[in-house]
Design goal:
CATH class of the largest domain: Alpha Beta
Keywords: ATP-binding, Nucleotide-binding
CATH architecture of the largest domain: 3-Layer(aba) Sandwich
Number of domains: 3
Pfam families: PhoH, PIN_4
Strand order of the largest sheet: 3-4-2-1-5-6
Number of strands: 18
Shape: elongated
Strand content: 15-25%
Helix content: 25-40%
Number of helices: 15
Oligomer: single chain
CATH topology of the largest domain: Rossmann fold
Structural class: alpha/beta
CATH superfamily of the largest domain: P-loop containing nucleotide triphosphate hydrolases
Radius of gyration: 27 Å
Family: In the N-terminal section; belongs to the PINc/VapC protein family.
Protein name: Phosphate starvation-inducible protein PhoH
Largest sheet: 6 strands, mixed
GO cellular component, one term: cytosol
Length: 471
């Protein structure tokens, strides 16, 4: 290997990085990469199957095969320029000076006696130690998604880092919340140039001022005083924005399928869910904030009362909290039923509010179930949903790639609702900053046909609220 002692860093990639992001070899800019032979062996063992991991491994193999085509032994020893691939993962030409090195000879370095070299992780650590010793002027860094791997590396005084390129934002506290409190003197500063008018029984304001540039379409604004001002940003252009007064669904006369909003954020959520011009809604919130109930109540209203959609489709990632219960018999809908307890609980609640007698409640439940379909994520690829109201539950467990696959299923007239809790992620190697739900919240915040709101107050019960805050 001809690894030059330049200012460039040499990143040694662990297998899980390539499994997690097959395009990771293009994410290190001008720095050099090194792939140990044991990593290629692990990739080979994981290439078979229909899981996302297996698909990612096969994509990595295709990238590496394209890089190594027509390369002789000398070229491999000198490092393969990553610019050899004409079209990268995003379809753009890649022009990077970084090179990719494969392990072409045995690299030995003594490990502690309790770290046998034949274990894959320990073999990678041994290779990193050997590279550090052989090239003292090069900054050799191990990149791994495995926390224990990084801990062992730190114990051996090896530089190790997590793979950060998959993170949408650096700190989850910086994630767009969908609502913003205005200053108490907002009207004093912006009222002089304000225009107001009525249209279709709605009140609109045209606002001019310096703060308008920081607003996003369909962002919810409010003034936390006795005035109770709540508005939605319908459009914003430079220093001019059009606001629409939000409807008050806390009023009993504006109930949605028998329920009312219990706080400001729930009211904002219902405004977004019922807006025919909003095609994509994301709802974040802790357990008990009403995400599923609001999404389902709005869906039933739009489907059964307003006839805006043909049916409601609900799906979710089937990640168990504890031990997997194993094979589930029956059809697709019957297999998904155990995962849809939240749907059934909320349908039962909404059905109980649809009639006063047992017969009326039973009839309402049957009507609702005829319009609510349960579908598995496993069979979504290739489908197109027309005039459907699609609810993706537990969306925090989806990767950005899975989220893209689902959202691109939407055909004309379809509305997609993504709901989840970023503090309850069960998928390995996913964090709050790299979740697909975080990804879409950040990427869609500037689109005029999408809306997002973070629900803050729990409304399930005083017991659930106390448990959420203190356990």
């Amino acid at each position: 290997m001809n690894i030059q002692s330049t200012s460039k860093k040499l990143f040694v990639l662990d297998t899980n990085v390539l499994m997690h992001d097959p395009a990771s070899i293009f994410r290190f800019q001008e720095h050099n990469l090194f792939i140990p032979m044991v990593v290629l062996e692990e990739l080979d063992h994981a290439k078979k199957g229909l899981s996302d991991v297996s698909r990612n491994v096969r994509q990595v193999s295709r990238f590496l095969d394209e890089l190594i085509q027509d390369a002789d032994q000398q070229t491999i020893n000198d490092g393969l320029p990553l610019s050899l691939i004409e079209h990268g993962p995003a379809g753009n030409n890649i022009e990077q000076p970084g090179r990719l090195f494969f392990q072409t000879r045995q690299l030995k370095h003594l490990l502690p006696d309790d770290l046998p070299g034949q274990i894959a992780d320990n073999s990678i650590l041994s290779i990193v130690l050997a590279l550090t010793k052989e090239y003292p002027e090069v900054n050799v860094i191990l990149v791994s998604k495995d926390i224990n791997m990084r801990i062992k590396a730190a114990a051996l005084q090896i530089n190790a880092e997590d793979y950060h390129n998959d993170q949408t934002i650096e700190d989850i506290d910086l994630l767009y919340s969908g609502s913003m409190a205005l200053e108490a003197d907002f009207w004093e500063e912006h009222g002089s140039k304000m225009e107001s008018w009525q249209e279709n029984n709605q009140t609109f304001y045209r606002i001019h001022g310096p703060h308008v540039a920081d607003w996003y379409p369909n962002q919810f604004l409010y003034i936390d005083d006795e005035s109770g001002f709540e508005a939605i940003v319908k459009s914003c252009d430079g220093e001019t924005a059009v606001l629409q007064l939000a409807l008050d669904y806390r009023n009993k006369h504006h109930n949605i399928w028998g329920i009312n909003a219990k706080n400001r954020e729930q009211n904002f959520a219902l405004n977004a869910l019922l807006d025919p011009n909003v095609d994509f809604v994301t709802l974040l919130g802790a357990a008990g904030t009403g995400k599923t109930l609001l999404a389902l109540a709005a869906g039933l209203t739009l489907t059964l009362e307003r006839k805006a959609y043909i049916e409601i489709i609900m799906t979710r990632e089937t990640m168990p909290v504890g031990e997997d219960i194993g094979f589930l018999p029956g059809s697709e809908e019957e297999k998904m039923a155990p995962w849809m307890g939240a749907l059934m609980d909320n349908l039962e609640l909404l059905g109980s509010r649809s009639g006063s007698t047992d017969w009326e409640q039973g009839a309402s439940h049957n009507v609702m179930m005829n319009r609510v379909k349960i579908r598995s994520l496993n069979f979504m690829r290739g489908r197109t949903f027309l005039n459907r109201y699609l609810i993706i539950d537990e969306a925090q467990n989806l990767t950005p790639k899975q989220m893209k696959t689902l959202i691109t299923r939407a055909g004309p007239g379809t509305k997609i609702i993504c709901i989840g809790n970023l503090s309850q992620i069960d998928t390995p190697y996913l964090t709050a900053t790299s979740s697909g739900l975080t990804y879409v919240v950040d990427r869609f915040k500037g689109w005029e046909n999408s809306a997002h709101i973070t629900l803050k107050r729990g409304e399930r019960s005083r017991l659930a609220d106390y448990a959420s805050d203190n356990l």
